Amino acid sequence: MAKKNVNEMSFLDHLEELRWHLIRCVVAVIIAATVAFLLKGFIFEVLIFGPSKPDFLTYDILCKASQLLGFESFCNTEFDFEVQSRTMAGQFSAHIWTSITFGFITAFPYIIYELWKFISPAMHANERKYSRGFIVVSSLLFFIGVLFGYYIICPLSINFLGTYSVADRVHNDFDLNSYIGLIRASVLASGLIFELPIIIYFLTKVGIVTPEILKTYRKYALVVVLILAAIITPPDVASQVIVAIPIIILYQISIYISKIVLRNQKRREKENS
């Protein structure tokens, strides 16, 4: 049976098409999560608990950078805390959900591919031509964000929270799910935040956002960025500045992307007129 043209498909046909795309995405995540589940030693010992080790790459770089600036707030990496599991199924549950998180991160390019397959039939031929790099660019931005979250936000958070104490008699014993939740939230939040240029691209395509709007609300966006940086990082000014800088850069890049999209739209309108 021949596949229906997108213009001939009813609302229920679109829902059925979307359902199969979502099923394939879930299957891809499950397959990647299964591989991550089997690599338990590498996932936990090397990746999950990597930022809690004094010899983690980021600490050495931040320590040297802070010394050049005349302070040593990032040089204390002697973590005196334990990670414990206080429930019967705590470790198994952490293993399952960590595997699913890694499955989603690993399968992200395929998820974007399925999303692209769903929306591309509704686009014009020229739009599909100019948007062929969507999968590569969005995946690249997501992975850069994930790496930023893992190598910058996670060490900053662990360095601050792992050494913070209100009294000498209080010892830090963190719950396993709390520790992993910090890693997961930092990595996924950064990955999604780095998708800002892609989001602006599509909002500009549908006419919701323009460069003028982005410029007008830039000062408000700066406040939002600082608030966001304060939420996903510990209450340390240096950490918040480190996180806020790339987000501000992404916002500025988004303005240029919005300009390019509008310029290309106007050029195509002239060519068709």
UniProtKB/TrEMBL annotation:
Q: Name one Pfam family in it.
A: TatC
What are the record's GO terms for cellular component?
Answer: TAT protein transport complex
Bilayer topology:
Multi-pass membrane protein
Q: Which domain of life is it from?
A: Bacteria
- This protein's UniProt keywords: Cell membrane, Membrane, Protein transport, Translocation, Transmembrane, Transmembrane helix, Transport
Segments passing through the bilayer: 21-49, 94-113, 134-158, 178-204, 216-235, 241-262
Record function comment = Part of the twin-arginine translocation (Tat) system that transports large folded proteins containing a characteristic twin-arginine motif in their signal peptide across membranes.
Q: Which PANTHER family does the UniProt record give?
A: SEC-INDEPENDENT PROTEIN TRANSLOCASE PROTEIN TATC, SEC-INDEPENDENT PROTEIN TRANSLOCASE PROTEIN TATC, CHLOROPLASTIC-RELATED
- Protein name stated in the entry: Sec-independent protein translocase protein TatC
Give the organism the record lists. Answer: Hyunsoonleella aquatilis
